[in-house]
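Q: Could you predict the 3D structure of Sugar transporter SWEET?
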Amino acid sequence: MEASGVADSLLSGACVLFTLGMFSTGLSDLRHMRMTRSVDSVQFLPFLTTDVNNLSWLSYGVLKGDGTLIIVNTVGAVLQTLYILVYLHYCPQKHTVLLQTAALLGFLLLGYGYFWLLVPDLEARLQRLGLFCSVFTISMYLSPLADLAKVIQTKSTQRLSFSLTIATLLTSASWSLYGFRLSDPYIMVPNLPGILTSFIRLWLFWKYPREQDRNYRLLQT
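A: Sure. Here are the predicted structure tokens for Sugar transporter SWEET:
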């Protein structure tokens, strides 16, 4: 195998490994829900939006014939669906959760209908679906900015996960390189905000270390 082929295989493997590692961070929430039989301190919308994101990228991967995208997003969609079902099982307000799920799934089905029925040209469908996936992914990466502002305001990184930050950084970087390697801006560009927000989180961990956070809370009490 040529050197370029080996590099492509390693990069593809890194994308799969790091992304599945990032998705598996939700297993701690799953364990918490099963042990406490409640959804206290567990957020539902990240599960739902990530699931929709996985299903969208899965469609793009199938249309493009990209095995790496297909594997990662198939496993990711299965995991996120599992998280959603467990959350729904223990959530006392099932009506709200079901409404949110139905709304996003309805939005996804409308998108499928548009891309697969109203855009007959394969190349145009690939471009428009890629653009949709890119915009959705960028919005997901930028959505936690409000939480980062709250961290700065409170000088506490208690609400941040260091392991998830590292996983997001490695995942975003590997997919950006993968997209660059394939000359696919729809894969490369939306992962750049993930790198940026991960570095911002790492800076916050350095700026407000957990030891300082404990001392700050003791002073407050």
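Q: Anything worth pointing out?
A: Residues 3-220 form one domain.
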